[in-house]
Amino acid sequence: MAGATFKTNPISLHELLIDCQRGELQLPDFQRSWVWDEDRIKSLIASVSRAFPVGALMSLETGGGVNFKPRPVEGAPDSAKTVEPAVLLLDGQQRMTSLYQVTLRNQVVQTITPKNKKVQRWFYIDILKALDDQANREDAIIGVPEDKVIRSDFGREIVLDISTREHEFERLMFPLSMMFSWNDWQVDFINYSNGKGNFAERWPIITRFHDEVVKNFSGYQVPVITLDRNTSKEAVCTVFEKVNTGGKPLDAFELVTAMYAAEGFELRKDWYGGDGVKGRHQRLSETLAAAGRSAGILANVANTDLLHVISLFYTRDRRASADKEGKHGKELPQVTGNRQALLNLPLSAYVAYADRAEEGFKRAAKFLHELNFYKVEDLPYQSQIVPLAAILAENELALENMAVKEKLRQWFWNGVFGELYGSTVDTRIAKDFMEVPSWLKGGPAPATVSETIFRADRLKTMRMRLSAAYKGMHVLLMNEGALDFRSGQKFSDTVFFSDYVDIHHIFPKKWCEDRKIKPQVYDSIINKTPLSYRTNRIIGGDAPSVYMAALEKGKTAPEGIATDVLDLHFRSHLIDPTLLRADRFEDFMQERQRALLTLIEKAMGKKVYTGSVEEEGESAEAEGDEAEAELTIAAE
Question: Which residues does residue 157 pair with via DSSP β-bridges, in sequence order?
C-alpha cells in the first residue's frame, strides 16, 4: 500500500517570508492576484501579533509530474523570477503576500480602503495601544499614507506625523517594515531616547513590547501541509479545488454552542428551532416579509449578529457595575462584541439578553421598512443592523417619537453615505451603541454623525451595485416619494415586489453608447433611478424625448399620460423633464447631481463637501454594471 504523499510541518514565518523574497517559494501562475483590503491586512497582523493561529498553508514540491508555471509572490524582487522554486503555494497566497509586503519588503504597500479606494500604505503598531489589555488589538494596527502623515479637515490639519524615525520614536509607533530588523530599530531608539533624556522612562515599555508582541512574530510557526513531488495531477487538482472552495470555517457561534451544551443548553435549537417550534432565526427572517415571500429584510441576520448584540449589553452592564465600584481607566471592562467577547459570553448573559436582542432586530426591521428597504440585497451594510438593533432594543419609543426617529435616520444615513460599515467594524459598532442612545436623549452627536463627510464628486464614481452609497441612493429616492414613470405609483413593498422594481438608466445605455459617452459617466448613480420592470422595458434604448412622447401619447396605456402629470412623475425622481425632452445629457447630469446632493444633505443633516481637495486614492470600482462581479476582494 502506498504511503501518504504529504507531510505537515510547522515552519517559521520568517523563514517562509525569506523564501518568498528569494523566490524559493512561489505561486502557480494561474493563482489570482493579490488584492487584500486594508482592514483585512490589519486583522491578519493583529492575529499574528497575539500569536493567534491564522490557518495552515498548503504547498506542492516542484520537480515532479505536476509542472505549473511559477510566478513570485507580488512585490518580490526581480531576482526571484530567475529562481526555480522549490515549493509552490497552493493555498495561503493572500496571507503570505500580505505578511511579506508589510513586514519584509520594506516598500509601501498598495491596498484598498473600506471605501474601495486604491491607496498606498505603511503599517505601524501603536506600542501603547498594543500593550493595553483593554484595547482591541486591531485598533493598534495603523495604516498611514505613503508620506507617513495622517491628515484631517481636507489636508489642513495633521493628526499624526511619523515621517521620520525620530517622530516614530517620539510617538511610540513601531513600523512593521522593521519587524524582522528589531535590533537595528532598538539601537536607534536607545540612541534617540538617551539624547532626549527619557531612556529610563521608556525602555521598560519597549522591553515589554518586544516580549509581548515582537517575539510573537519572530517565533511564529505556520503549519504547512506539503504535497510531495510524486503527488498525481488528479490529486493536486482535487486538493486545489477543495482548498479554494472550502466549507464554512468554525465560527464563534459553533464554539459558544459547544460551551453552552456543557451546561445543558441547546443554543443551536434556540436559534434554528426544532420539534415544530420556530427558532429565533426563522422568527427574525419572517419579520415583515412581503405577501407571498417567506423572508423579509432580516433574512441574513446571522447567529453571531444576535450574539454581538447580547455581548454589547453584557459588556456595557459589566462596565457600569465596575464604574459604580470606583474602578476607572484600564480597570473598566471594554464594551465590545468582538470575537473574543463572544467566546467569553456566559450562558447567563445569553438567557438574560437574548429576547431583548431579538426584539431589537424586529424593531430594526420596522425602521428599515419605513425607509423603503424591502429586499436584503438593497441593504447598504448588513453589519449596520447590529448597532441599530442594539439601540432600538432598549428604546421602543424611538420609533414613535418623530424627533428621536429623525435623529436615528440621520445616524443611519451618515453611516451609509460615510461608507463607515464596510469591514472590521467592531469598534464602530461599540461606539455607536454607547453614543447614539445618549444623543437621542439630548447628548452630543455620535462620531458617526459629527465626523462624517460626503464629497460631491462621489456621486460620479458610484457605479457598482455592491457599493453601500449606491444602494442607499436608490432607496433614499423611494423614501422621498419617487413615483414610477408609467404608473405613477409609489414604491410600497407590494409594488416593489409585484412590479419587479430595480434601479435603471434614465438616459438608456444604448443611447449613450451610440453617442460615444463613456461608461464611467453614464453608469453613475446620477443617471439611474428606481423603476418597475415594465417601465424599463418601455424605455428600452430610446432617447428620453422619444420614450416620454410614447408615454404621453398613450402607446403604453389606452388613455396616455397628461404632460403635467408625467412631469410630476419625473420630478419626483429629482429629474428636470425639460432637459429630458431636449435630450440634453450633460445639462441633465449636472442638474441631477445638484439635486441628489441636496437630498443627501437633507438625509445626513449637513452640507456635502464641494471643495477642490481630492480624496486620497484611486477608485477601485469596476467600470459599468457588467464588470461588477469581476471585482472582488479575495478572501481565504
Answer: 152
